[in-house]
Design goal:
Elements: H1 2-13, E1 46-48, E2 51-53, H2 61-68, H3 73-86, H4 88-102, H5 111-116, H6 119-128, H7 144-147, H8 149-164, H9 174-186, H10 191-230, H11 239-274, H12 280-296, H13 298-301, H14 304-313, H15 319-333, H16 343-355, H17 362-378, H18 385-392, H19 400-414, H20 435-448, H21 455-470, H22 473-481, H23 493-512, H24 528-555, H25 560-566, H26 576-580, H27 584-600, H28 604-617, H29 625-652, H30 659-676, H31 686-700, H32 705-728, H33 733-753, H34 759-775, H35 797-810, H36 829-851, H37 859-864, H38 867-870, H39 885-904, H40 913-927, H41 937-951, H42 969-973, H43 982-993, H44 998-1002, H45 1009-1019, E3 1030-1031, H46 1063-1074, E4 1085-1086, H47 1093-1096, H48 1118-1155, H49 1168-1172, H50 1176-1183, H51 1214-1217, H52 1220-1225
Parallel strand pairs: 3-4
Antiparallel strand pairs: 1-2
Helix pairs in contact: 3-4, 3-8, 4-9, 8-10, 9-10, 9-11, 10-11, 10-12, 12-14, 12-15, 15-17, 17-19, 19-21, 20-21, 20-23, 21-23, 22-24, 23-24, 23-25, 24-27, 25-28, 28-30, 29-30, 29-31, 30-32, 31-32, 31-33, 32-33, 32-34, 33-34, 34-36, 35-36, 39-40, 39-41, 41-43, 43-46
GO molecular function: chromatin binding
Subcellular location: Nucleus; Chromosome; Chromosome, Centromere
Protein name: Cohesin subunit SA
Length: about 1250
Amino acid sequence: IIMLFTPLLTFLNSFSPPLPPSQGGKKGKKAAGEKGKGGKGVGGAGRMNGHYQENGMENLMLFEVVKMGKSAMQSVVDDWIEAYKTDRDMALLDLINFFIQCSGCKGVVSGEMFRNMQNSEIIRRMTEEFDEDSGDYPLTMAGPLWKKFKGSFCEFIAVLVRQCQYSIIYDEYLMDTVISLLTGLSDSQVRAFRHTSTLAAMKLMTALVNVALNLSINMDNTQRQYETERNKNVAKRANDRLELLLQKRKELQENQDEIENMMNAIFKGVFVHRYRDAIAEIRAITIEEIGMWMKLYSDAFLNDSYLKYVGWTMHDKQGEVRLKCLTALQGLYYNRELNTRLELFTSRFKDRIVSMTLDKEYDVAVQAIKLLTLVLHSTDEVLSPEDCESVYHLVYSAHRPVAIAAGEFLFKKLFSTREPEEEGAPKRRGRQSPNANLIKTTVFFFLESELHEHAAYLVDSLWESGADLLKDWECMTSLLLDDPVPGEEALTDRQETALIEIMLCTVRQAAECHPPVGRGTGKRVMTAKEKKTQLDDRTRMTELFAVTLPPLLAKYSIDTEKVTNLLQLPQFFDLDIYTTGRLEKHLEALLRQIREIVEKHTDTEVLEACSKTYHALCNEEFTIFNRVDIARSQLLDEMVDKFNRLLEDFLQEGEEPDDDDAYQVLSTLKRITAFHNAHDLSQWDLFSSNFKLLNTGIENGDMPEQIVVHALQCTHYVVLWYLAKVSEGSHRKEELVSLRKQMRMFCLMCQRYLTNVNTTVKEQAFTILCDVLLVFSHQMVSGGREQLEPLVYSPDDSLQTELLSFILHHVFIDQDDDTGSTDGQQDDEAAKIEALHKRRNLLAAYCKLIIYNVVEMNTGADIFKQYMRVRMEKRFTQTREIGSLERTSNPGNLTLFHEMLSELGTGFDRSSSAFCGIKELARRFSLTFGLDQVKTRDAIAMLHKDGIEFAFKEPSPQGEGNPPLHLAFLDILSEFSSKLMRQDKRTVHMYLERFMTFQMALQRDDCWLPLISYRNSLQAGGDDDTMSVVSGYSSRGSSVRSKKTKAATPTCVFSLAEESSSSSADMSWQHQSMQTPVMMPSPHLTSTMMRGPGDMREEQHPHPHTLPQTPQLHQTPIDYNTQVTWMLAQRQQEEVRQQTNLQQLRTNLQQAIRRGTGLMEEDEEPIVEDVMMSSEGRMEDLNEGMDFDTMDIDLPPSKNRRERSELKPDYFDPGSIMDESVIAMF
């Protein structure tokens, strides 16, 4: 019998985990007086893990090993387990100090503390020893050493639980102590403790979930073996084996009960508090881990009781928390087997997920779209058509990741179904291919998109998910060229236009391999695979379109829009294919079609497309250059000869030319101008003929406006090509003289056309004149081009005046007055928008002259003062980059202020619309300085200096005792006070006091309000360097944990010495500018409690270590000196009072910390309104239909579950941890 059952016992033992060892095992109970700390004494000298310990203090080698990121983490854990089996108190003390060290605390838990103190007392002691000079702790520290710390820390916890899962994890000592410690630390006000312990607790919970999952699998296997054995015949049934299996199942059940209690303690003691923590990082950790629990052990955790936390947190105010919610849900929806358990959650929170596709955080929006794609993949009935349409339009988003995600959603929704192909049947191509209907669907979707009309963005969005479909150019050309089969509906003209545009965009995307304008973040280096794909696509498209493009041009030769798009295709060809593929005859056909299109069309877009196609084909690197160059030269010769002949007849007629002659001249001039844009036509001497044409128009005044417009543009191209030729290399002096002469003559001609009666002509002359002045400015000699200095041209005063006058009379006008470009269609919204764009372009052309100092800088004041009157978008904020904004914004305000005084008089109402408009203008100017105060420091300081001098420059005409004439300007100047650095505010305030008298400082009448408000704006925040001791709302970016004190900011570089009549005053200014306030090293305690205004009021006083500097006494006349001395004495007394109050505050705070006040308090209010939901009504709406009782973790039911007693409240009793507000919320 023994020989028969020995193999069977060996087989059964292979499926069962080893039982815990008797020493320190599960059956061992703690003595009554041990308080969970064990019965063995800790102290004296000893050894643990091979490292000496002296005076009961740990060597903390465990933290050092994890910090260095050793790869052999399992060996480290095994060593610790061996030490635990030898002396569990010493090993556990090492583990406790490991968690303390990982939090950044310099304190160490001694053996005496471990034996005699409760966890709350230990945490309070560690809080007192926390380093307050640094706001960093290991989880937030930067540097290569700390980058991998979080991963190593989490790995250590996971390996520790995995290695202990069959033994000491069930001894009711290790896990009880660790969970109790982490629960207490997670409720600490110290952010480092709370952050680190929450991460440890959540990773510990995840490791326990894995253990519970393994136990569940073993229990199922054991139960199955038991049922199999029991169902056997009585003769074959082994009763001993049944008893072994029953005993094994009982052991597994007890272990599972233990794990359940541990997980319940962590969930109720840590998770239900920290998922609504004030710190976003902590909330993100909890949501990320609960997603892992539901994914790993869906039978126990994937239900509405746990999903509700993820649903609530999707309304979090911080993007990183919302992002964790979506990624957690993605892991659940990816598994189709879990869809039935997610039905209720999906119905309740689907609308929220759909709305998150428009999240202000792009990363959140991307993950929301991906989640909806998974939902769509799992079931097609959940999302309504309205839900899908809200995602469809995002394919036109400017943010590429959002568009790509939306494109994938669109592709799965509309293009995932295609016609099945029969096995063995020949592959259908062209119009009969399976992609034909999908391409039509793409065209239909593009045409039905009412929000956008940009095919390039649609193609880019679908490129990653549907590149094979979009690169089926053979099918596209077949749909355009071949006749439809019987029963097939042909494409309409609008659909053919859309298909050609989409086809062009796909060709461009394949050839250039970068997104369209507005989506790219810069050029990136392509991989070898991408380069090979690009070359293959260019070869394939060239071979196809080299044959099909001429027929397409012939079919649509009279359609302007279609021809314009088709003519752009050769720009992306691999021109070698014409030679290597023996396609020369198709090249000849293409050149013939282009020539016919040039002769047929006069539309500028078509002609420019033809010009660019010739330019792309005329590449000297390819063998087809000679053939294309001959065809281009013949075409240009004919056009120029025809133009000269028509122009001669047009100008020599004594009577007014008829419309037919004017049309012939205009159409030929359009063709020449379009080609001159991309080709050098200098050999035909077009300057003389065009200048003659323009001069005749000035003399007679009856030249058609379109002829003048194109003549100006053509002459502009002549000058620029001449300049390019001169700039390339060696040149003769005669060429420079000739170019200088032509440029001056052309500028004079444009200046004369500024007074033309036709608005279109004037706008064209203005734009070209601004471009020429910018090109031939003093900057053209930079970069080693000093030989071009004779060409530099600076506009005289009369030309600058005319340019400014044009801007004031043609740009800064009311919308209804702009009738020059709308052709009487003022009611047409599109025409108004077009006119607005044209005015913006004109303003941009002139602002470039200001930016590059081509015109006088003070002309910018006349531009700025018009800003608020017409409410036009500012195009001129770039002037700040070269330090000119401070030279123009204040003159602009001064000009408006003078005009207001002349209109309203000195006694104007400060609430009048004129004055409020100037203040609003000043506020907008202040926004243009940006957030970099160091960069704009000098500019802002000089602006305040000039403004103060202007305000006190003119005395009151009513005599002494009345405010200065321009004192109200200080009210405008106060809009710029927020841009001053803290130390500069004090300096400017000192400078202001030099212009004040003692009586001014005491005035409180309404007429002195500008001075009072300006002084208050300078004093606000000037000496306030305090920080809140406790922060309950800030996240990592706004935590009150202060950084180490930085070096003082450099002093202000501008000087006021030339403005002072006393050298001592100069020294006072410089001395005050050197006195940079010192940031106080605030305690690093962050609380999860929601404090009221009264609780925080005491914390708003300055720090006692921040000693305000006593200002130096000014040397001014004797009567004023006495007054200032009295004012300074009052200020010093106030500073002494503040110091006293702050010292008392710090003393009280230190005493409170020692007493432990509030360090272990529970959250008083759930952060539902601030963190989770936007309103209580929404919470009630979300609660409807969900099981929202705070439950115990209940693993899948099993038989013979034995009852267990509650854990001691001293450790982690859920009833003692959860406060009433949490229970009430659920």
